[in-house]
Amino acid sequence: MMDSSDWAEKYRPQTFKEIIGNKKALHELREWADSWASKIPENRAVILFGPAGVGKTTSAHALSREMGWELIELNAGDQRTADVIDKIAGSASRMKTLFSHEISENQLLGKRLIVLDEADNLHGTYDKGGSKAISDVISKTTHPIILIANDVYGITQTIRSQCLEISFSSIQSRSIVPALKRACDAEGLSCEESALLKIAENAGGDLRSAMNDLQACALGKTKLTEADIVVSGRDVKETVFKALVKVFKGKNRQEALDAVGTLDETPDDLIQWIDENLPLQFPDDKKIFPAQINPDISGGFAVLARADLYLGRVRLRQNYRLWRYANYLMTVGPMSVRTRDYSGFIKYVPPSRWKRMGSSKSMRTMRDNIAAKISRRHHASLRVSRNELIPYYMRLMENEAYAVSLSGESDFDLDELVYLLRAKSATKEVKGIYEKSQEIAAKYKSEEPEFFKGKLSRKEKGNEGGREAVKGQATIEEMAAAVEKKKESDQKQQELKKQQELEQSKQKAEADEKSKVSKQEKNEPPKNQKSLFDF
Ligand SMILES: Nc1ncnc2c1ncn2[C@@H]1O[C@H](COP(=O)(O)OP(=O)(O)OP(=O)(O)O)[C@@H](O)[C@H]1O
């Protein structure tokens, strides 16, 4: 049976040899480690920096194994106040000094490798004093120290000047494929090469993400084909997952806001991500909180509830300026109410509501399809339809009669209705609305100009190349001919209508005349009777 543990962790390389790419960096790291053999080197610490998921932490771990050094790791989740750093890293670094008489014969024995993860994040409230403490420890340490960072510029100049800097870079897709293949073989999963390449290319050089995507796509399968690969377009700079780390574990509000700002998520979508992952990140551990629920969960949901209040007001008043308050509350809220730090890797998951409807990508495609239908109906742009009209539709469709008519006019399908009605699934009620809407849809379709029938907008087709004819349907020439034909038939109809109107007015005039005469005949003699005969 396929293992459900985290594959990225399970297949973390144990030795330098197994690590893919970054050979130059590994060589420099090894040279630095060797320089500790006979004396304390000039650089007592190194900074391994580069993008996420390329093997920086893995290399540090492998180094400790290969050198036989004991590993002491201080993660960003740990409180890195000056005091803590002094207690953990400080005491570790002074250990040798204290017991030097016991191990001075062989400094390699008893050496400890101190690893500080996320060293570019030492300036937050909790890390206050962290940078200074690290700088002090580095200057005195008799044990090697590795700092790990994504952004080397996030580390103070004082620390950088004390360290050797080693740069790691993204891993090429074709090098990622064999690593994925190895995991597939070990899990007994048969896999198309093209499927692995698709995952690798989408990962943007991040092997951890590639491994996570592989595991997610392989869930419940024994064979993986290219068609099974549903990976959301990954922004190399910041994925939602990375932004969530900043929201939940970060200590710097602006960093969290910046990370969230780079995402292509509306606050309505973002809150679902945060809502889904909050209990995963702040688990309700009964050992720690035997008598109450983890206050970070209750506090976290309380701020999300407030954020949701603003989202509700946006929907109600169509005032999108309120989005900023919702955004701020949901991004900065969880870190502000957090009472403790959480270390360790959490596998964040997409909102379960989206999973019920397919992947987050299909959810987006559906929202775009809805926007395309609305934009066609209202001659509005896709952007306006997506951002302004969909929320407006959702509000209107809370009324059943509107739901039926709007759905019929735009010909929403059942899944689209589930989305617009904010239902959990296609309930009896939703199906009822759908069925009623179909009569209206049929009427609208029969009235729709011939050349529009069956045409999809570019978003509906997922095609960025402008409005095109769908396979097997009208070309531009045919559409032009259809327009001409329609003009002609409209003209004919107008002429016919004019003739009918003329005919009708003639008949009316005759009838009026008759009735006038008969009235005159019947009721009273015409006053001007005399003149009538007055030739
Ligand atoms: N170069 C690599 N070779 C093989 N596996 C790798 C490599 N880089 C990353 N991985 C896989 O990705 C996982 C995460 O890698 P690692 O923790 O070393 O990344 P990192 O560069 O430290 O990223 P971050 O900056 O996010 O901490 C590993 O457990 C391993 O499965």
Descriptive notes:
Strand 3, helix 6 (130-140) and strand 4 form a beta-alpha-beta unit. The protein is elongated, with a radius of gyration of 35 Å. A five-stranded parallel β-sheet has the order 2-3-4-1-5, sandwiched between helices. It has a two-stranded parallel sheet with strand order 6-7. The longest helix has 47 residues, at 476-522. The protein contains 24 helices and seven strands. The model is unreliable at 95-108, 232-238, 356-361, 450-480 and 517-535 (pLDDT under 50). It is mainly alpha-helical and 535 residues long. Among the domains are: 22-167, P-loop containing nucleotide triphosphate hydrolases (Rossmann fold, 3-Layer(aba) Sandwich); 240-350; 360-447, no CATH class. Bound molecules: adenosine-5'-triphosphate. Adenosine-5'-triphosphate binds next to helix 1, helix 3 and helix 10.
